[in-house]
Specification:
Length: 452
């Protein structure tokens, strides 16, 4: 039994680690996971539920409302009335009391304890602000749904960028490691030549400078790889230290994102989420104007109640034989606004101004969206062109660096010329990696505007 427990204790950490390392995602899988688990996406879903509850809360305000009330009083010192200020038949007077106009006798009326139980039904018959409020709830719900759509698009865009940055960092690490290995080999050979008296010290120094620079780039790339992976985990709603594995290849993903047919996609303004949100603002201002106008209308409410009243010298109100006296009331409340010193008029005018401003903002939003679309198309085309150019430049830089490697080993090229070729290669490598990420990101931006 002891051996079994020890074996389990040894296996559990390995099993836990194996379980944690199963988080592997393609880009599409990462987006789907993030839309369900991203913190902002979760709260956007809650906002829709909240808007639905708020809609019913507003509607319920105009439906029948029933309230119950129970009131208990215990008069520790009862008030007294003086006789004969109150006329009472002689047979009801206490024994020994003589009805004399010149004699005043204090008399206590009623019993010290009483309970009143009432149930009241209230019904709103007419209220202009209620009608407007119910209409406005539809606009508010529409805003919450559009805001959810906006959040999902933002989450998708953030995941794509974070995913691409992780691939970029990983590729940078691999390239820097290869460059470092090549430089270490060159430096080792150059040192051997110098030690044998066949080379100069400057060649060793030049290669040492280049190697130190590449080593720093490698360290930075490793740090960025960790940070970008943590950022991706955050966007996906995972713990930032989660060992997530990416299954995509940066070059394949970039080529997959090249789709010139997207540029010819028909653009419909009403499908753009930013336009929808600007239109929601117009709706909100429209209902605010209607609400301001509705305050000049009368309101009519009705109520009916029923209750019971009981008295006693002691607390016996819960006894079955306790006597209760019933009562009921029906009432109507009509409130007619007559004069507000032009306060309502000023409020209505302000609401009109706010609506006109919202209309202007909607027109501005349309023009901005059209401009964003043209910029996004231009940036997408440019990213594809730069991707093709940087790919060709990388081949040329690799060829130049390779030729300088051969010339240097044969003593034809100097160490300075080799360093220039190597530096040019390293710069071109980073430009190529960045161009692939740009293609991915620029397509996502265009798709966001088109709502694809």
């Amino acid at each position: 039994m002891r051996t079994t427990i020890i074996s389990l204790l040894l296996i559990l950490p390995w099993f836990s680690q194996a379980q944690e390392s199963t988080n592997s995602f393609s880009l599409d899988e990462a987006i789907i996971y993030a839309l369900q688990n991203n913190y902002k996406a979760i709260n956007a879903d809650r906002d829709i539920v909240d808007a639905q509850k708020q809609k019913w809360e507003t509607i319920a305000g105009g439906l029948p409302q029933i309230d119950g009330a129970v009131n208990y009083q215990n008069q520790l010192k009862q008030p007294q009335a003086q006789f004969p200020s109150i006329l009472i038949p002689e047979e009801f007077l206490p024994p020994g009391v003589v009805q004399d106009p010149n004699v005043f006798v204090p008399i206590i009326f009623g019993q010290p304890q009483q309970v009143t139980a009432t149930a009241t039904l209230k019904q709103q018959i007419f209220d202009g602000s209620y009608i407007v409020g119910v209409q406005a709830t539809k606009a508010f719900l529409s805003y919450s749904q559009n805001n959810k759509e906006k959040t999902d698009l933002d989450v998708r865009k953030a995941v794509v960028e974070a995913y691409g940055n992780v691939l970029l960092a990983q590729e940078s690490v691999l390239i820097s490691e290869n460059n470092k290995a090549t430089l270490e080999k060159n430096l080792y050979e150059t040192k051997r030549i110098f030690e044998n008296g066949l080379g100069d010290e400057e060649s060793v120094d030049q290669l040492q400078i280049t190697l130190s620079s590449v080593e720093n780039q490698l360290k930075n790339a490793k740090r960025l790889e960790k940070i970008t992976l943590q950022m991706l985990n955050l966007m996906m709603g995972l713990p930032i230290e989660s060992p997530t594995i990416l299954t995509e290849n940066l070059d394949d993903l970039a080529q997959e994102k090249i789709d010139l047919g997207l540029l010819d996609t028909e653009f419909k303004m009403e499908n753009n989420v930013d336009f929808k949100l600007a239109d929601n603002l117009n709706e909100q201002r429209f209902y605010e104007l209607k609400l301001a106008k509705s305050r000049a209308l009368p309101t009519l409410n009705a109520f009916i109640n029923y209750g019971g009243l009981s008295f006693g010298d002691s607390f016996t109100f819960l006894d079955s034989g306790q006597e209760w006296f019933g009562f009921s009331t029906f009432g109507v409340d009509l409130n007619i606004p007559i004069f507000s010193s032009f306060k309502r008029s000023a409020s209505t005018q302000r609401a009109k101004i706010a609506l006109e401003k919202a209309k202007t903002q909607l027109t501005e939003a349309e023009e901005q969206i059209r401009l964003q679309l043209e910029n996004a198309k231009s940036d997408y085309i440019l990213s594809i062109e730069e991707y093709g150019t940087s790919k060709e430049n990388l081949k040329l830089a690799e060829r130049i660096e390779n030729k300088n490697q051969i010339k240097y080993s044969e003593g034809i090229a100097t160490s300075f010329e080799l360093r220039q070729a190597q530096t040019q290669l390293y710069t071109t490598q980073q430009e190529y990696l960045q161009s692939m990420v740009d293609v991915i990101n620029r397509k996502t931006e265009l798709e966001t505007i088109l709502n694809q």
